[in-house]
Design goal:
By secondary structure, the chain is of the alpha/beta class. Helix content is about 65%, strand content about 10%. A six-stranded mixed sheet has the order 6-9-10-3-11-12, sandwiched between helices. Strands 2-1-4-5 form a four-stranded antiparallel sheet, with helices on one face. The protein binds adenosine-5'-diphosphate.
Length: about 575
């Protein structure tokens, strides 16, 4: 059960501060809007007896006045709504902006713990819900609460004993109504759960249709589905029944409450405490309470849901972010990095007690090409993640040109060490944007990078050249083209070190040759660590390092390792190196 605490939302208040002028203007309009209510109730008190007495001139006068008040009130409402809408929307935009900035800095461990789907849900649905609550609170809850206070204050001023009676009756009605509302909510939640179970089964069923058919299990699946839709129908029916009951019951309770106030009012008139005009105003004011009360209860329910969403957003804020650079971090001027890599007795595990890399020693001279080979899970990608400082070794040191990575600035390090990932994912946008990837680069530099990656030919053949659009997930480009774009993106900043994760999925011979040409040009003059799957790569590497279970078990040239007949040779023979792809 959610606790209706405002603590989470209260912490959003600082976000409102920059918008205080609009809030002040909107607030003033709100005061005018609310102040009109007791005025209208008073006018109703004047009007009803005048109508009863058939006093037409007086009726006309009061109606004219009421029209004027209504006009002022609606103008004020317009001012309130339009002035407050912007700060309310800006606050939820600020919240999203801050969360996304946080997301970009999250520690990789934390990022993996929260799935992409979950994060997307939080940043869209949850953020929307919180935004809605902020909006409603500013624009609806506040004026409704104010209206409640002002109108009730007017009723107390009119006749406090009668107001006292109302004050006793109202909570009784409100409690009965909310008890009922809670039951409806529970039933609705159960029905919602049933819907998601149905969706789950459907997802599973659609994905598994061939399997079901292969096992002739259709009757079984049909029966499971029918049981599920039966449960779904029942849950829905219970909600519908409760809803069907809710309106009459709530309506009756409200009517009974009002009738009770009328009865007490009649007694007050008889006792001489109130006149007919005052009583008319009182009843009108009473009716004016129904609307804000119903707004407040609806908003309260949404507020509770929003509270849960806000908590889910706050969880992202509690996740650890990447460690900031040390204050004494060394600068790493881009042109002056030679690219010598060294790992000294590096031990690292995602969980500290389960090392993935164990006491690894490796030195790669500037300009050397080292191929990493080993079975899946050996720790090759983990090694890359240490070189990019995505993770930090628990023991030992990782050095670039003799500097411990921990003492460098992350941004500069990542400009010097460029990654070509296995899945050549490019962001949507133009080709030029995909290569520049947010870095300031002239068209000439982009062309040069594309030329190195052997991508210039196909890019220039596109109708719009470098301004051609890449669709989401690069769906309008071939695998080989995307790989070459990823190579161009990597070499754009002229990095000293290239980390290359070779794609395992085979391209056709022609595309393969084009990518290989791009790679050869891109690798020239750089230190390269490549997670190798291809014979061409291992054959041309200066050295092959064989990793297994986080340790180096062999190293040497292709020929030497083949001749020694160890694990490497076994890999080649078991086709872990794609002998046939060349
Ligand atoms: P390789 O690239 O050689 O296939 P990895 O470096 O990806 O190997 O993985 C080495 C080991 O670390 C594997 O046992 C893998 O399950 C584990 N591992 C990889 N990434 C993570 C992670 N983010 N969190 C926890 N364990 C991981």
């Amino acid at each position: 059960m959610l606790r209706p605490s405002t603590a989470g939302f209260r912490r959003l208040l600082p976000l409102l501060l920059p918008h205080r002028r609009a809030l002040l203007g909107g607030g003033l309009c709100m005061l005018v809007f609310v102040a009109c209510w007791p005025l209208l109730a008073w006018l109703a008190g004047q009007l009803i007896p005048a109508i009863g007495a058939g006093d037409l001139p007086r009726v006309l006068r009061v109606i004219g006045l009421a029209l004027g008040v209504f006009m002022v009130q609606k103008l004020a409402q317009f001012g309130q709504d339009s002035l407050l809408a912007e700060p309310a929307l800006l606050v939820s935009q600020d919240l999203r902006r801050q969360l996304f900035a946080r997301l970009q800095r999250l520690d990789f461990g934390a990022l993996e713990k929260l799935s992409a789907g979950d994060l997307t849900y939080r940043l869209t649905e949850d953020a929307d819900r919180v935004g809605e609550v902020i909006y409603k609170t500013i624009q609806d809850t506040t004026p409704s609460a104010l209206q409640l206070v002002v109108v009730f204050g007017y009723m107390v001023w009119l006749d406090w004993p009668l107001s006292l009676a109302t004050l006793v009756l109202a909570p009784v009605v409100a409690v009965l109504v909310s008890v009922f509302g809670a039951r409806v909510m529970q039933a609705a939640e159960r029905s919602q759960k049933q819907v998601s179970e149905l969706a789950g089964l459907l997802g599973e069923a659609i994905g598994g249709l061939p399997l079901v058919r292969a096992f002739a299990a259709e009757p079984w699946l049909q029966q499971r589905f029918e049981e599920e839709i039966d449960l779904h129908r029942r849950a829905r029916y219970r909600t519908q029944q409760l809803l069907a009951l809710q309106y009459p019951v709530v309506g009756f309770l409200e009517a009974a409450g009002i009738l009770a106030v009328l009865l007490i009012g009649a007694a007050r008139i008889q006792a001489g405490g109130l006149d007919a005009q005052g009583f008319s105003s009182y009843v009108t004011a009473l009716l004016m309470l129904i609307d804000p009360i119903s707004h407040l209860t609806t908003n309260f329910n949404e507020f509770q849901q929003g509270q849960a969403s806000l908590r889910r957003l706050r969880e992202i804020e509690r996740e650890p972010v990447e460690a900031p650079d040390r204050p004494d971090a060394l600068p790493l001027p881009l042109g002056q990095v030679a690219g010598r890599l060294e790992l000294r007795e590096v031990t690292f595990g995602y969980a500290p007690d389960q090392p993935v890399l164990r006491g690894l020693d490796l030195t790669v001279a500037a300009g050397q090409v080292v191929a990493l080979v080993g079975p899946s899970g050996a720790g090759k990608s983990t090694l890359f993640s240490l070189l990019l400082r995505f993770n930090t070794a628990q023991q030992g040191q990782v050095l670039l040109d003799g500097h411990d990575l921990a003492g460098l600035r992350a941004h500069e390090l990542r400009r010097a060490v460029a990654l070509v990932p296995q899945q050549s994912s490019v962001f949507s946008g133009t080709v030029a944007e995909a290569i520049a990837f947010g870095r300031p680069a002239s068209r000439e530099q982009i062309r040069e990078a594309a030329r190195l990656a052997n991508a210039d030919g196909f890019i220039e053949a596109l109708p719009q050249g470098y301004d051609s659009r890449i669709e989401e997930r690069g769906s309008n480009f071939s695998g080989g083209q995307l790989q070459r774009l990823a190579i161009a993106r990597a070499v754009l900043g002229n990095p000293a070190v290239l980390l290359l994760d070779e794609a395992t999925s085979a391209l056709d011979a022609e595309a393969e040759a084009a990518v290989q040409r791009g790679l050869d040009q891109a690798m020239a003059g750089r230190t390269v660590l490549v997670i190798a799957h291809r014979l061409a790569t291992v054959q041309t590497a200066d050295r092959i390092v064989v990793l297994e279970a986080g340790q180096i078990i062999e190293q040497g040239s292709h020929g030497a390792l083949m001749a020694s007949g160890g694990r490497y040779r076994e890999f080649c023979e078991r086709q872990l190196i794609h002998l046939g792809s060349d």
